[in-house]
Each structure stands twice: as C-alpha cells, then as structure tokens.
Amino acid sequence: MLESHTLETKAPPGNRGSVRPIFTLAPTHIAPDRRVALVGNFAPRKCGIATFTTDIFEKLAEHHPEIAVDVYALDDPRQPLGYANIASTITCDDPESYARAARAINESGVDAVWLQHEYGIFGGPEGEMVLDFIDRVAAPLILTPHTVLLEPSPTQRHILERLVQRASRIMVMSYHARDVLVERYGAPLEILQVVPHGAPDRPFGRQEEFKRRFGLAGRTVMMTFGLLGPGKGLENAIEALPAIVERHPELLYRIVGATHPNLVAQEGEAYRERLMALADELGVAEHVQWDNRFLETDELLDQLEACDIYVTPYPGMQQSTSGTLSYAVALGKAVISTPYLHARELLADGVGELVEPQSASAIAAAANRLLDDRDRLHALQRRAYAKGRETIWPRFADGAAALVESAIARSPRPAPVTATPGIAGVLAMSDSTGMLQHSIGIVPDRLHGYCLDDNVRALMLMNVAEGIEPLQRQRWSQTYASFVQHAWNPEAGGFRNFMRFDRSWCEDLGSEDSNGRTLWALGHTVEHSHDQSMIYWARRWFETALPHCADLNSPRAIAFAMLGAAAMLRKEPDHAGSRTLLAGGADFLHRLLDAERRPDWAWFEAVLGYDNPRLSQALIEAGLALGEARFTDAGLDSLSWIARQQIAAAGHFRPVGSDTFGHDHTRLPFDQQPLEAQAAIEAAATAYRADRDPKWQQHAQAAWRWFFGANDRGVVLADLASGRCRDGVTPRGVNENCGAESILAFQLSYYSLIGLLREQQRDSTGERVVGETQRVAEPFAHS
C-alpha cells in the first residue's frame, strides 16, 4: 500500500507487503562504473521509506545499470525480516552496528552514500544515532530527508541541520521542501536537487477494461486511496456525494485502503465506522464501496486504472508529497484535490481541478463539471497523462542517476584558504601607466594595451583591499587614478576608454558604460579611500564628470552612475547633484521595467546582457537613498527574478552567458564570465541591506562558489594565493587566460562578500564578527 507524507508528519509514498523477486542488478555485459551505498528501510518492510529505498534500487538497476547499488537495510530487532539483494543490515538501535556499517562502506570504496532520513527509523532520541554514522562515512553524502519540519523540536532541528551540513547533495521531491531547507535549516541552494516522485508508465485510457475486471462495468468510478485516518478529508468527499449522485446516479465512490495501524491500536475501526455511518445518514451508502486492505503496488495500480476521477480531499495544506497523487496523474486520471503543497505543484497549469479545503460543495461542483461534460473530463485526463510522462520511472531514474553523478563530481572541497586573496596577480598586470587589459595565460598581453574600465575597477580595489602596506596602496591608487585623470577629454566632455601600449588613445570618447563606471569609481573612492588627499581628488573629478552623466542613455551606464551617486550620498547626504542624478536614473529604470515586464519576463530589457544585476542594484540603492519604497521594491523584485535565472536546476550558479547577447527573451549558458558573479554578489549585498533576507547571502555564496568549481563544468577559476582568476567557463571547460576584468571581478567579489557576511553576523544574535583569518573558511567549509 502506498501512503502519502507531509512536511509535518509522514514519510514518502509506498509500502510493500512481502519479499518478492527483484530482478538482476545489471546485464552482465555492462560493468558498473559508479558504486553507491544506499541506506534506509528496505522491502519487505511495510513502510513508505522501505518502498522508496526499494524503488531507487530497482529503478537504477533497470534504467542505469552503470550505477551499482549496495543496500544497507535498517533492521528493527523487534520485527526481524528476511532481506534479499542487500549488502548488510544495520540494527537500528545499536551504535556498534552503525559503526560496523560505516567501516564496511568505507572499505568498499563506494563513490557516494545515499541516506534516506526519517526521524523514526534510526535509534536514539529522535533518531540521533544517524549523526555518528554520517560522521564516520568517508564518501560524499547524498541526503533525502523525508520529513522536513516547519516547527521542529530542538533535537530534531539539531539532527537535520547536522545532516544538511554534512551532505554533498540533498534530494527533495518538492520545491516547497527545498525552500524550507534553505530558509529554515541553512541548506545551500546549490546542493539541493528536486527529483519528483516517480510513477508507473502504463497505457492511457484503459478504464473500461479494468472496470470489467473488478465488476464495475457501467459505473462512473471516483476513488480515494491510502491509510485511513483523520486528516484525509474523507468526510468532505462523502458529504459531496448527494449532490453528485443526484445528477449522476451511476457514480460509485471507492475508498481503498486499510485504517492506519496507529489508529487501529488506539480505537480499532471506530473511525471507519463513523465514515460509514455518515454515508448511511446522507443516503449514499450504496454509492460508497470500501476496500479495507493493504494493497501491493501492482494491484493498487490496477485499481487506479479502473477509476475515472481520483480525489485527494486533504484538509491540511502542508503535505509535501503524495505518491498516490503522482501515480494517479501518471495513469491519466482526472484529479480533484485540495491545494496542498504537492497538489499545487503537480496539478498546476490545468493538470487537475483544485478546490478549496474542507468544502463538500466545492468537491461536488468540480465533479459535476467533469461528469456533465465528458469531453472536458477526457481532456483533463489527457493533460494529466501528458504531465505524468515527466515523472515516470525512467525519468525518476534519470534524476536519481544525475543526483549521484553530481554528488561525485561536486563533492565538498576544502575551503580554498583562510587568507585574503593575494594581490600579486593584480600587480603583475600593472605597470607605471595602469593595468593592462588582457593576458595570455597568466602573462600580460601588451598588444591590447589598457582600458579605463579596468583601471577604475583597480582603483576601487585599492579603496577596499586589506593587508596592503600604506605606501603600496598609495602608489597604486595614484597610478590608477592618474590613468582616470588622463582619460578625461574636456573637448568631448567625457572620458576616453581604450589606450594602446604606447600610451596613445584609440578614441576621443569612450562608451557610455565606461563613463558611467568611472563616475561610480569616483564616488566609491570618496566613500572608501583611506587617503584624505585621494578623497579630495576623487570628489573634484566627480563634480567635473557629474554634469556630463545627465545625458547618458544606456541603462547600464545610468545604473553605474547611480551607484556612484549613491556612494557619494552615503558620504555626503546633502550632495544635490547626486540626489538629482539618482532620482532621474531611478525613474528611468523604473519606467523601463514597467514597460518591458511581462508574466514570464520581469526585466528591464528584452535582451539579457552583461552586468545584469547592476540595474536592480542601482534601483535598490536609489530607493534606500531617496526613501522611495517603490524603487526599492522594484529593484528587489527584479533582482529576485534575475537571480532565479542565474541558478541552474542543479542549484549552482549559472551566470548569463555571453552567447545570450543579442537574443530576445533568451538565456544561454556559455561563455560564463567572472564579471557576472561579481555583479550577483554585490547586488545581493545591496539587497541584504534593504530587506535583511538571508536568501541574498545564500545567493552571494553560490556565486562565490562558482569561482571554485561549483559551475557547469566543475572547473576552478580562482587562485586565492596569487589573487588571479581565469577568464571564464566555456563549453569545454575553463578559459585559461587571466585578464584584468576577471582578476578584479574576483578580488572585488571577495570584499563585497566579506562585507555582506560581516553585516549578517552583526545582525545575528549571540554571535561576534569572526577573526580576520577565519572569516572565509567557516562560511565556505563546503565550497
């Protein structure tokens, strides 16, 4: 029998009754190249965890024989069972048994350990014996938490937080469970993977055949399945029957499943008898058929095939997974359901009929709409069947195999180092003129000379870099500032950008973006420089350039200039020119966002370009500086949207690739550049100042980990010792060059992230700011 589970109480679907043959793990001609230790309850135990663990074992063997699975079955000595096709058992309440199993797993050399977690199946208070076990295993840990409590006890919270901290990958079956793990338990988004509950792949539309088999020919069959007990909403379904059978007297409502054993232990069959009495009182007893049995999966599927409408009237909205709901959709049943979590996700976009909870009239109305219009009923069944193709067992097996592979490929790396990034890579790209643009490998490429963009970024780095001798900071700040100063063209009323190695300019006026970024760097210097003389210099040039920024048209140029104005206002709150620029720019971006917004595209432009989060960041900064909530809210909303676009389904950071440029309403993955990770981190830091939402710190950390291998190719770009950074991720791996933009993006990302972490730590209760040499190691212990 299958049983659904909720975030608050139960485990995932499925129970098996007795030992039955399990097919050979793999054809003899295929040699497994991955090996996984699978830990959890296992058939023939009759519980949801056992069914799910057995399904993983069987479906990987059937569809991915390249992955060998060693099962370590949790065994209850009070109810000993005979197991087939397992490596060993673990006595659930014996600490030594866990230690022996961990030793055996380590010695077997498996590539990963996949743990099915439910509080009630492990020994100790709340099942805390699992913690010693996971501390002992050496291979990367894949975690499937079957209960994710919104309001856990202290012990429950401690256990799950420890499991999350230890896990390399976490599999959940709903997006809601994923979000709870992130928001309540601190799970990094990049290690979470949603794999929907699997379902059978059977032909569509065989109702009449199976109705004849069960003696139901000529009847319209509505069905509910599962262990009976309060909280299933069956009273509401029965109360809906008079209104349904009045118009459709051929209807039969089949309630299939045994009463929950815990309830039987408390009160026997009193609950079922109350339901039967209700049906009799309403005059619909002859339209209700009871099947009080624990069904094997195959018979359950046959009975599901014999129904027209499947009903899940659960009154509680926190149910995260229902195996029978997944099965019913995959078999092409019209589903009427209350909008609990799994139903909202699975039945979205017209896949099923969602009705308000605890409403018999809503169930009756939905059923009559379908039964009055058989074309509508058939169309809904077709949509359900099509949706079910996404969750059939081969797809589930693919998701499970991908989970295993990603855990192995992205196992936790040690924290890169605990020190601040070195500055050698920056200085190696710099000379007495400024910072060179490009490199070949790590060697500066003089052919392409210099550009203003990189030198203003280098100036910003000198403003915030830690561990630099004062005279060294002064020397390089002045070098980069001198480049900025020399770039000014008074005749053109703006800054030049590109300079050849012989110090001749390539143009009379640089791009709007380079001019906007220069104003930003000048404001940044006023706010952050350690040298009062440098602050005086920056303010003078800020005032010189500011009037010329009023005519900027590029959204990014305007955003860059706004960031400079916001920095100036933090230093000088009464600076009228900055306030004017910020207000005008915010109004422009806000109107742009409103004009381009559509249901699936909450962005400022039809095309995603580079430095995308800067647009949102500037709007947030304007809202904060001007006290305009509409700007702050629009900036946060749009930043949330672009952040979602830059997180892959596997959870790691995937910046908008440069191939995207020029394509409307499209996001392409390659080539990925460090500038995008920097923009994500710095915009997230600004967003955190605005709303204190921990998700921004999590997003910033995902972008930071991108530098160290948590990316689509698993390649490391950054070297903390030298402070260098590779130029990006390509379809074939890493771009080996270390240009100025990439190096500075990495360096500035670090200091922005450190600022965010420090601010978050100041907000936390009972915590102090960590020491200088600890501040990166602890947040990124699983980088």
TrEMBL record:
* Entry protein name: Glycosyltransferase
All copies of the Glycosyl transferase family domain together span: 208-385
Q: Superkingdom of the source?
A: Bacteria
Q: Where does this protein have coiled-coil stretches?
A: none
Tell me, what is one Gene Ontology molecular-function annotation carried by this entry?
Answer: glycosyltransferase activity
One Pfam assignment:
Glycos_transf_1
Q: Which organism encodes this protein?
A: Croceibacterium soli
Q: Name one GO biological process term.
A: carbohydrate metabolic process
What are the protein's UniProt keywords?
A: Transferase
UniProt-listed SUPFAM superfamilies: Six-hairpin glycosidases, UDP-Glycosyltransferase/glycogen phosphorylase
